[in-house]
Amino acid sequence: MRLARSPGSLPPLPRGCVATIGNFDGVHQGHRGVIENLACHGQRLKLPVVVVVFEPQPREYFFPEQCPPRLTRLREKLIELGRLPVDQVLLLRFNRTLADLPAADFIRDILIGHLRVKYLVVGDDFRFGRGREGDFALLKRAGEDHGFQVSDTPPILVDGQRVSSTLLRQALADGDMPAATRFLGRPYAICGRIGHGSKVGRQLGFPTANIALLRKSAPLSGVFAVTMTGIAGHPLEGVANVGTRPTLDREPRVLLETHLFDFAGDLYGRRVEVHFHRKLREERRFADLHALREQIARDIQDARAFFTSEPKKN
Length: 314
Known about the structure:
There is one protein chain. By secondary structure, the chain is an alpha/beta fold. The protein has two domains: 2-158, 3-Layer(aba) Sandwich (Rossmann fold); 187-309, Elongation Factor Tu (Ef-tu), domain 3 (Beta Barrel), CATH 2.40.30. The chain has helices at residues 29-45, 58-62, 74-82, 96-99, 103-114, 136-146, 165-173, 177-184, 200-204, 289-309; strands spanning 2-4, 17-21, 49-55, 88-93, 117-122, 149-152, 157-158, 161-162, 188-193, 209-212, 222-229, 236-243, 255-260, 271-281. Helix 7 packs antiparallel against helix 8. The two termini are 23 Å apart. The mean pLDDT is 91.
């Protein structure tokens, strides 16, 4: 999979492409179904598969203080898209220029001029262009005029519910990791580079691998049974806390701290992926470090019991 950070940096598409447009936050089962279906049309037409995404997401641009937490950062999104039958991702920088672009110009310049799209899939509620003037009906008319087909996204049902980023976000907020896994088709994961922390975990006897999440809020919080990949040839089991460490920190910041079972080694600077399997408890403030140490020991015991009863591959 290749990444183009602007329409002008796209590789030549002499015969055009099949494409879809969206946020793809979470890259869940619904997104997977759309892309796999699009890839079938790409094979039929012998055309590459292009996924168009926005950065930041339009809602983040217009309403930065009202947006729910992202399910995936851009890097995580690209990793998951790279695991699907996608040939090219076009990243459109959402700024004032793009926000003010008339819908007709978006179709002419990007869809026709750069992508030469032959088959396009979007949600039937997709809106685009200045003042959200563009919609599915406009795309259908443009397709009839310029020779490309437009289709809406078929519903993907899991547990009788249409999978969406909103549904997945609610499962994570509720700590319902089995449901989140079903909606995603995989355990929810966060990737990042391990950095230096305050070393308090080491002082307590439970050293942690720390990842700063670089966001104001995360879609989940609390203590979890997790596995970590990217270190050994197999997933490493552990327990992780996602939150603001209320017992230790005065300035709230979202941090992912993972204690790996029976592991010794230097992880600083390593890029890893942490997979969440079961929520053990909510994050809370403890009276002192002794109480915190005792609770961490219980968390480790609970996480070990989970992996003994229900082993996970990653």
